[in-house]
């Protein structure tokens, strides 16, 4: 057996023992996220590739499976996400179960009027006013202020990561309440919230109905929080969770030894709209900020007419894919869809370059979900392999896992183009040794 065959065999053995990245509904009980993988999977990767003192990066941190598993195992980690609604979600996973339960108990024990007491600050331009009437916006501001007050009180150490974590849990309560409140604006597409056409169609909420929703969310969060006496491991190490753009912000954060991540899906879901409740909970966003996020987030469905794809992309497979999309016989293939995929792949190329620069030597682990354009399967796995191999990394090993359909695969119109909507997740592991 040659050394490379031996290394391949050992890698395959690792895969046989590795837990699946696939989520079960139980694993995500605290916060239902469409795009996550499991902390068990991250932990198995750390066993294999996380040497002592390793720094780990997740450039698309989402709900923070990577940062929470690294924190629990004592690894130094940095999670980056462009969506300000996801930063508190990632912090929430680090909240102590006893504090989360106490937060929920206090919420349940607080009367409706006190819970939603208007903090009296003028709202400025409030993105919530797009969906809710004035009284509801004031009640939401009141609830946010109560939640922040309770979290600060519980964490006892102002400005500490402990406070950020319990504040994150409080934001998740608010996001889940808002998801429930926005239900009248949801259609058959679970990732879409329509906007009221005029002020009179905005949602009205009083403190009593908000209180009922808070109690429901707090009860289920309390049940999912884990044993209150559960102790943090003595190795626990707080991560850095950063609001940033993988296309241009990673250089300053490095160097890293290991990347564990899952690129944004390439499935024409408007992820800014899909996370409207999280963005409303975050509260700092204006309408313009929201529209700008819709354009900047990878996989954005709002395309720029000037989006062009550089044919000099360094991947034959990607060039062929873009040619096939441009020449597809269906309406808008050569216009809108070419712009959409150009934008996605331009961002992917920039991000892969940034990631590779941030890891002088070590491993990159990507969980990649397959995607389609009409009947055509987009070989994202193959494209990522070619793009990453251009940066000096080589594919060490890979494995396929069947995946449950996510909101990304929920559009019933797929039946017009193909028989099956089977979703597959590939785990790709690359290495670079100078
Ligand atoms: C597939 S999800 C990651 C899921 C994550 N592994 C988890 O366990 O929750 C992709 C994430 O990438 C983020 N994202 C999209 N474009 C980005 C960009 N340009 N820079 C950084 N993050 C971005 C999205 O907001 C989303 O949270």
Task: Tell me what portion of residues adopts beta-strand conformation.
Answer: 5-15%
Distance between the termini: 24 Å
CATH architecture of the largest domain: 3-Layer(aba) Sandwich
Spatial order of the strands forming the largest sheet: 3-2-1-4-5-9-8
| CATH first level of the largest domain | Alpha Beta
Count of structural domains: 2
Number of helices: 15
**Stretches with pLDDT under 50, minimum 5 residues:** 25-29
Q: Helicity, in percent?
A: 40-55%
Task: Give the helices and strands as they follow along the chain.
Answer: HHEHEHHHHHHEEHHHHHEEEHEE
**Shape field:** globular
User: What value does the average pLDDT take?
Assistant: 88
Structural class: alpha/beta
Radius of gyration: 22 Å
CATH superfamily of the largest domain: Vaccinia Virus protein VP39
Any idea of the CATH topology of the largest domain? Rossmann fold
- Largest sheet at a glance? 7 strands, mixed
Give me the count of strands: 9
Cofactors, ions and other ligands in the entry:
S-adenosylmethionine
